[in-house]
Amino acid sequence: MGAESGSVRIGVIGGGQLARMMVPPAIHLGLRISVLAETEGSSAARAADAVGDYRDPDTVYAFADTVDVVTFDHEHVPNEILLELERRGVAVHPRPEALQFAQDKILMRQKLEELGVPVPSWAAVSDEGELQAFLDAHGGRAVVKTARGGYDGKGVRVISDAGEARDWFATLAEDGRGGQLLAEELVDFTRELSQLVARRPSGDARTWPVVETIQRDGVCAEVLAPAPVADPATLARAAEIGETVAEGVGVTGVLAVEMFETRDGRVLVNELAMRPHNSGHFSIEGSVTSQFEQHLRAVADLPLGDTAMTASAAVMVNVLGGPAEGPMPVRYAAALAAHPRAKFHSYDKQPRPGRKVGHVTVTGEDLDTVRAEALAAARAFD
Amino acid sequence: MGAESGSVRIGVIGGGQLARMMVPPAIHLGLRISVLAETEGSSAARAADAVGDYRDPDTVYAFADTVDVVTFDHEHVPNEILLELERRGVAVHPRPEALQFAQDKILMRQKLEELGVPVPSWAAVSDEGELQAFLDAHGGRAVVKTARGGYDGKGVRVISDAGEARDWFATLAEDGRGGQLLAEELVDFTRELSQLVARRPSGDARTWPVVETIQRDGVCAEVLAPAPVADPATLARAAEIGETVAEGVGVTGVLAVEMFETRDGRVLVNELAMRPHNSGHFSIEGSVTSQFEQHLRAVADLPLGDTAMTASAAVMVNVLGGPAEGPMPVRYAAALAAHPRAKFHSYDKQPRPGRKVGHVTVTGEDLDTVRAEALAAARAFD
Q: Which positions in this protein are listed as binding ATP (chains A, B) (predicted)?
């Protein structure tokens, strides 16, 4: 709690909005935060003490020398670099042996099966023949995903013919590392859920209420917290899955487990993210302890905070793309004026169509009212 | 809402905890914030783009050149410098003609009387003879205050003989500017209240619920929000006084009006502060829009946010002084572990006995429960 008294110095690799939103709780908790940003214009650039390429070992090692703990805005730092950091005695959270399951979807599926966690039917496929066999066995349609590097709907295709993944197989062949694609059954889901969990190195963990996420065009559009209850048993199962995964993969920091709720009442894990996640942005206002504060507490090995809701309902709506017309500040003022209860979060990013440039959260007692207000406030930027 | 789109650049003069706590909402709103800090080790140093003396005109002019709006962490910037900034076309909020009433207690008392706002019986006294006359007319005891530079109980004495202010008269005489001291009746108050108001340059204003402040040794120790209702008419009068003063002095940004509630049911104004104030720290978690966010909105001339409470009650307790024994981080972890619902705010300051080094806020439905939790969490640092 002070410079003189050994405040923990946290280094965040990646300068996007997740790093940006870690800065406010770091200020309040009295933790020192530094960011290794990709470019001078990054979302978290104001907290950046270093600008450089996270794929360059020496850049990362030099940055790590200035902090006590290294954590992440994204999962793209090569595992070899992180393992070397650990060999050099740097605390890395999440640890590379956990992070690999968020970096490689095939490893993730294998691990989840090993943990007995329900997942969609899947196979790792090495060529078009194997993919076509999977398609034939699953009614002629399937989802195919690149194992590494996908994000926000990129690297995901719904296909009905193996030839539709030919370019990806070609890229893998060029890569020469014998990579595979992940083929999955096309799940007949009624909605998507997300379970956030934070876990300390000691294993102590806390969950937030399960939320419902609403995607549009493969990108998270809205989050309803807590998820409106359909079957309480389903929500309890989602929470249990989140805890099992957090423990099973040994994550430290925040883990997001994205799940499908199927028409026949099952809950299947779709994706994992080992960092604060879009489905947890509601928690800045909606929870006693936000995912960003909790992530910092967890990676600094400080006791975790309470995750209760601060109101009956919180709805987060992403603001996408740039202004269609007129200067942004004018629209910003109009949005603030029309929605005094809405909490606006700008990522200070160059607007491009479809890019997340901010979000809006509204909290209150009635979900429908709160949701209508949040949607209207976000729409002020369309 | 973005670098490219003309984000307002706000410059804060003064690097204390108030500037520090403006940084989180600036990040969320997408406003650029810079701080002119006194020293490298200031509380808000992590946001500081400049370090220098706010009494040096050229330092302030150079800082102002880098921002769109100048605002303050404290009221000590000489008025001549601020008037010159305005002559140079810089937006200064609060404006120097408003700020003078927070800089000089005699000007403040004159203005409040002119506005018809109830104040304790007072006089500006030039020497011991005038002070003794005031004492004699007020039962032989009074409060004497330096007109300028007092803060947190400094520059305030309760006296029963004019000789007790001899050193202050001597200092004023050396100063050669013909200054006076402020003599005031010793108010028989039952409690202290504070009304926060935020006002835009256009005059649009919002108030928060009136709070009760509890002082110990002349320093704010606790804030109960909203003030437990004794007589609703009293609270309504306090709110009305706040609005009258904000409008009457033409403040822009946040104004705190500290008041006495007297045994005979009157509400008298004690002090004014034209900046976010200790009595408003509860609003970070306790209000839809915190005083820090609202101050930024007001000085950037953006629409003001809703000031409703987020829970029935919020209690803030200051953390004073340094650790009596043992390293702070150890105590910090223990405090977080014991109080998962408490929100801890560290100012990253060198602890010294009696110095405010942080605060704790708890929100909830029952005031007594919330207060007990906040006191216990703050006491973990004693």
A: 105, 145, 184-187, 192, 270-271
Q: Is there a single domain that holds both residue B79 and residue B215? A: no
Whether residue A197 sits in one domain with residue A239: yes
Nearest residue of B to residue A328, measured between CA atoms:
B5
- The ipTM (two decimal places) reads 0.93
Contact A20, A348 (CB under 8 A): yes
Which of B44, B64, B41 minimizes the C-alpha distance to B54?
B64
CA atoms within 13 A on the CB side of A256: 22
Q: Does residue A172 sit in the same domain as residue A196? A: no
Cβ(A18)–Cβ(A24) below 8 Å:
no
For residue B176, the enclosing domain spans: 121-184
Count contacts between A and B (CB, < 8 Å): 163
Find chain B residues with C-beta within 8 A of A6's C-beta.
327-329
Q: Cβ–Cβ of B350/A32 closer than 8 Å? A: no
Search chain B and give the residue with CA nearest A281: B28
Cα gap A259→A272, rounded to integer Å:
9
Span B305-319, pLDDT tens digits: 999 999 999 999 999
The amino acid present at B98, given as its one-letter code, is A
Do B3 and A350 lie within an 8 Å CB cutoff? yes
